[in-house]
Predict the structure.
Amino acid sequence: MPETRKASKAADVFPQQATVGRATARYVRMSPTKVRRVVDLIRGMPAVEAQAIVKFDAHAASEPVGKVLGSAIANAEHLAHVRSQRLDPAELFISEAFVDEGPTLKRFRPRAQGRAYRIRKRTSHITIVVEPTSDDRKAR
């Protein structure tokens, strides 16, 4: 009897799963505040439109953000292919996009009178999640 319950749980879980593409770039040698400026531009947008914005954005952080976005879209397409689902990249939108602070590299710069000043070289962890547009999302 417990086996049938497990089978019904598995049948309930797998068909309802949405195709979610997630990508993370870790230890990007750029300040999190600089990367957040670009990520804030594209959060909540359709993925194709966000790619166009990132491609022509003047910020230096747009390059790693664009790579992560492209990877998230490719991951969603791959996951849909593995699950034998149809997925149009034009239907994807960015459901989550955030930047976390990574470890800080500490360096020292010589200063006057034998002193040393600390230089902080900050790193970032960029995460982007894309999902297909649902029916309630289209209505908005």
Q: What stands out?
A: The chain has a mean pLDDT of 87. The two ends are 45 Å apart (CA to CA). The longest helix spans residues 62-82. The longest strand covers residues 92-101.
